[in-house]
Write a structure and sequence with these properties.
This protein is α/β, with parallel strands linked by helices and about 130 residues long. Helix content is about 35%, strand content about 20%.
């Protein structure tokens, strides 16, 4: 992500611990680059539900999570359930968007792929302003 705004443009995001679950390697790498440019800290990255569950179990501090909804045909909901129970804000990232997503996770945000870095920064800024845990 070249030519971006850099961490100074999004001061609310500096140091935000963000957990990422994305099964497409290139999308995951771009997302990690965007987060670093915003000044966020990537708290962990997973590509499968089982890997994400393992990462979440051992993650001491997660301020927000960006979760791809569909991971190779498997839904991310078990991970989202654990994170929301902990009070971690969840941002779902999807090309489709299940109809029941807003109903099941009313406090979550939804980013439709492909999304611009500014859209991601805006959503993360919004969740960073919420009281955590």
């Amino acid at each position: 992500m070249s030519g971006g705004a850099g961490p100074g443009a999004y001061p609310a995001l500096f140091g935000l611990q963000v957990f990422v679950v994305e099964d497409e390697l290139l999308v995951s790498m771009m997302l990690e680059d965007m987060l670093a440019e915003f000044g966020c800290v990537v708290a962990g990255v997973a590509a499968t539900v089982s890997q994400a569950l393992s990462e979440v179990a051992g993650a001491p501090a997660i301020d927000a999570a960006i979760l791809d909804v569909n991971l190779g045909g498997e839904k991310i909901f078990p991970v989202a359930d654990i994170l929301t129970e902990r009070g971690v804000p969840v941002v779902f990232s999807t090309g489709f968007g299940p109809a029941d997503l807003a109903q099941r996770y009313p406090d979550s945000h939804l980013l439709h792929k492909p999304y611009a870095p500014e859209a991601l920064a805006e959503v993360l800024t919004d969740v960073s302003r919420r009281p955590l845990h």
